[in-house]
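Cross-check.
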Amino acid sequence: MVCGLYFSLPFGQMHARNPRVKEMARLLGRSAGSVAMKLVNLASLDPAHQQRGVKGLRGASQADAAMWREFEENWAAMVVRSEEKREELEGLTAGLETQPAIEATEGLRFRKVRLMQAFFRRSVLAAYGAACCMTGTTVEELLVASHILPWARFPDRRVDPRNGLCLAAHYDRAFDRGLITFDGELRLTLSAELRRCRGDGFIAQEFVRREGMPMRVPERFAPDREYLAYHRASVFR
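Predicted model, tokenized:
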């Protein structure tokens, strides 16, 4: 559960004063300081920190490292485990009855999808500092955690944060429909179809003037270059 929290917290917010850290501590029956310490231990395993030369504390155990690898190798299963356990504890601490052990197949599938989608959004927005990587807007209601590899075609990559881009809603729609993509240098590329609409004031202002601009790349969970290559080859029009 704490590892799942780590992936969905922005850098600089992994301290005992953070309300989300306090809430996790309450659910686990631990102190906020102990949860914050575990988060800092996990930070020592994070390649993003290692590339910046930040070593963090050396308290990470072999079990921590094994759990980190499990997330990296099977995001979907680990996210569901983490989120289901959190919801179970939230229900228990609120004095609610737990869900029956056997649920309808469709209901169980919907619940897992909801958990995965919620985690994916939190982790992607945390990585990008809750700002669109092209427009810079920070209005959270307008931000979408966009999938690079389509959700339906790549079920094992659905919650991999490196499969995500934080985009304003109109950029998300254009990216999903293949009207825009990003080249090997992560620069905005417009489809011929969108270029033909350059006479439209909105298209000119929001897309044409930004063509060739590089996206803002997060320190953690930078988009996977191979995923973007797939988008250029198979989604981009």
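The chain has two domains: 2-103, 140-234. The CA atoms of residues 16 and 33 lie 5 Å apart. Passed to J.P. for a second look.
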